[in-house]
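Attaching the record inline, Q. Sequence:
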Amino acid sequence: MVTIENEMLKIDLMPKGAELQSIFHKMHNITYLWDGDPDYWSKRSPVLFPIVGTLKNDTFFYEGRDYHLGRHGFARDMVFEIEKKSQSEAIFLLSDSEQSLEHFPFQFELRIKYSVEKNRLSVEYIVKNPSEKLIYFSVGGHPAFKVPLIPGTKYSDYYLQFNKNEPLSRWPITPEGLIEQKPVAVAVDSNILPLTHELFYKDALVFKHLKSSKVSLKSEKTGHGFDFDFSGFSFLGLWAAKNANFVCIEPWCGIADNRETNQQIEDKEGINKLSPDASFARSWNVDFY
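Structure, as predicted:
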């Protein structure tokens, strides 16, 4: 276990998957991250790389060959190197290997940087292309936050508030994990999305190209919650396992295949293209209160 902390936050991290294990606010005595109860969902905050979501038939094509990747890629199951560690910051590194090249034919360096400052956790994904050819990839987060946060409150006491008023439309997910061709309106009151377990009975809520860059977890029953900033991410997912007491807020640079995909990775919706020796960086931040 790797721990970073300051006077307000204590963050536990695991080299396997470079995955968050705990977010504890010392002053409020609140644990904000889901505890990974295996009866519902054993993960807590998996890193999504080199794809986000599901490929059609778990397959993509590149330069005349087929390659196979499971949902959300392989990074979440790999052990990262601890490249740097200080009291308030940790950087994890995953590089291509003989094993990864069998499923993803690109050289890469993926760094996950975690840092704390006051009541803020920052998570940065840095992808570098060390090769002499273009690489194609997606990357994203999947943190699960505990709901309810405090005793005496229940799941439906909480809501998500976006920082912009906009008509929310989700892109439904097929039973095979693919994105449907047409969006469906989500009933919201202005920029408020009430949380209910039933909201996620048909899988995740997937949003494309929102005006909002921030979403907050709030409740009228408590002053505790958080502000989640996902600026720079083109897609956002919201999800919870059936009847589980958490909500995942998932910033994505990438998205699952749609039903009409040709499965060519160069044409994949939301794919990122990186030139030789270039780097790509995106970060999300959470302020806890």
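Residues 2-288 form a domain with the Beta-galactosidase; Chain A, domain 5 fold (CATH 2.70.98.10). The two ends are 25 Å apart (CA to CA).

More tomorrow.
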